[in-house]
Fold this protein.
Amino acid sequence: MSEDTQEQTAAAETAAPSRRTVIGWGGAGLALGAAAAGGAVALTRDGDTAVPVADSGGAVPFHGAHQAGIATAVQDRLHFASFDVKTKDRAELIQLLKDWTRAAERMTAGAEVGEGAYGGLPEAPPDDTGEALGLKPSRLTLTIGFGPSLFDGRFGLKDRRPGALVDLPRFPGDNLDPARSGGDICVQACADDPQVAVHAIRNLARIGFGKVAVRWSQLGFGKTSSTTPDAQTPRNLFGFKDGTRNIAGTETERLAKHVWVSGKDAEGGAAWMDGGSYLVARRIRMNVETWDRTPLAEQEDIFGRDKREGAPVGKAKEHDAPFLKAMKPDSHVRLAHPDSNHGATLLRRGYSFTDGTDGLGRLEAGLFFLAYQKDVRTGFIPVQTSLGSDALNEYIQHVGSALFAIPPGVRDKDDWWGRALFS
């Protein structure tokens, strides 16, 4: 489950104009405010320059030192996909990454892929699937990552596997489905319009046909964490505020300390990770029917916060510093707090999900947990180990898991996803 109280020139290739309207340009994904309805102006930061971005239909720049979709203000919707690489040809994989990069540049700017969804040769399939025609960019971000299995020797990358890209241990209570775990490559698509996010993953899968195949994917709604200062803290499907002290996209010092890989963390074979991060993705089933029959007082004891305000036990306001010893020893907040885990702090971008029923009349619902950090060995692993005695475990189960190395951002139109890794 999420750690509730942890310290919290997008240019498309312009051969053809976009058929969708680019409403505005943000900066490298570090939000200084949330755009309000009706086109009110917010600020985003590109390097050291604050620039305005229009409403939530606008575009987030694709190029930058870090990939967008990490410190970027969290969008409303998610489509996450994990791919298995089917080709054994290194050159073919590199070309795919280049093709994906060019497509990502266009889609995040609101343009169609390639020559578009219509107007080409009638005897050939169009370059773009077309379901996003007429839609705004919707702050689409595409973030790529590489799983441990990509470094198994097929592509000469064994010596380039970072030490932090470990095989996650089995944690207490795990009931992982291999079909919903792992993968060679991941792509996280976040947008304010679900159709824009789905369109992006669909087109990357189409471009990769024969070279990669979708291993598993996850749709998400109702963001459960925020990276935007002063925004209302989202609630998870248990009704509690989540991510009260999550790292904000404007907190450059905390990002440097806890999220971005740099310096000695990116030495040797891992030098290609300079400017990158590590992503843990966990599919967490929530037994909402059991939870809904649990008394309110017990729910609040389990979390260590009150349900209305989100204030920690014994405090009046959500953002009041928690007094951990006032909480029950097995409360979620107490066990997940950095003070209980040698300062371990994650940047979370989780989403709620519902996937029909489980065949027994219960909702298949839960949290798709996404957490970015500098090193999982000092981040997610100690926190999740601490949560082994969490009272919340009676109501949740981790059923899917994956870890990915997230490379640095694409610097310009000549750069491409994974260039430093394959150079």
